[in-house]
Amino acid sequence: MPSFFSLCHHIIIIFFSLVPQKSFGVVNPFFQTCSVPKTCGDGQAIRYPFYIQDKQNSSCGYPEFNLSCNNNGHPTILISNNNYTIHEIFYQNETLRVSNSTFSNLNSSCIPFISNISLPDEFDLAPNQTNLFLFYTCSSSVHKSWPSEFYPSCYGENDTVLALSRQEPKLISNVSMECKSSVQAPVEAYGGGIAESLRNGFVLKWKASSCSICEDSGGKCGFDYIKYHFKCFCPDRTRVWNCTNTTRFEYLP
C-alpha cells in the first residue's frame, strides 16, 4: 500500500503536468519586434494594424495595411493605385484622416486632375463625410452659368476646373453632361475653400481584427501570414488571442 508521502508526490507530478508550461527566461522575438512603434518622421507612431514597409516586420501589421513614407516624412497608404497621405491615425476608434497626396503638396488654389476613389474591403468612409464634385473640361455654357465656381487647373494656364459642393442630383447630372469628366472627392468638412478642404481630406474607418483584448493582456498584436490569422505576441510566446488565457491549446510554438 503506497505511503502518504508517495501519494502526495504523485499528486504534485500530475498537477504540474496539467499546468501550461512556460519557457522562463525566453523572450518572444515577435513581441520584441512589435513592441517598438516606428515613425516616418512626423511623430505619428505607426503600430498595428499598420506597419511601414522596409521599417517594420509585416507580422506586426494586418494584410493590406502596409504604409510607405513620403519625402516630407509623412506616412502614405496606397488606395486605388493612388498615394494618400495619412494626416492622423485615431487608434481608439479605428479611424484615420487621409487626403490624396496630390492635394497635400499644393500651396496654391489650383485643382489637379484626380480619379474617383474606390475603397478596398478593409476600409469604409466614416460617417458624416461629404463630397465635392470636380468637373473637368466643361463647355462654355457651364462657364457662363457658374463663373464663380471655376478654379485654375494645375496643368494649364487656360484650363479650369468646376468645383461644386452642392448635393442636388439633378444639378450634378446636368453639369456632368456638359463636361468631359467628373470626380467625387470626399472631404471631412467643406470650409475655408475648395483647395483647403481637399488638402484636409476625409476620414476612413478600418476593418481589422480588434487589438484591445491582446493589448489589455500585455501582448502585442500581429498577424500570421502562413496560417493567415490574427496572433497575440506575448512576452514568452505567441498565442491566439490574449496573454492571460490558461488553456493549453492557446499556446503556439
TrEMBL record:
It catalyses: L-seryl-[protein] + ATP = O-phospho-L-seryl-[protein] + ADP + H(+); L-threonyl-[protein] + ATP = O-phospho-L-threonyl-[protein] + ADP + H(+). Residues 34-99 form the Wall-associated receptor kinase galacturonan-binding domain. It holds the Pfam family GUB_WAK_bind. It is a single-pass membrane protein. The lineage of its organism: Eukaryota, Viridiplantae, Streptophyta, Embryophyta, Tracheophyta. Residues 168-237 form the Wall-associated receptor kinase C-terminal domain. This is non-specific serine/threonine protein kinase. Its EC number is 2.7.11.1. It is found in: Membrane. Transmembrane segments: none annotated. It is an enzyme of class 2 (transferase). GO terms for cellular component: membrane. The keyword Signal applies. GO terms for molecular function: polysaccharide binding; protein serine/threonine kinase activity. Keywords: Glycoprotein, Signal. Residues 1-25 form the signal peptide.
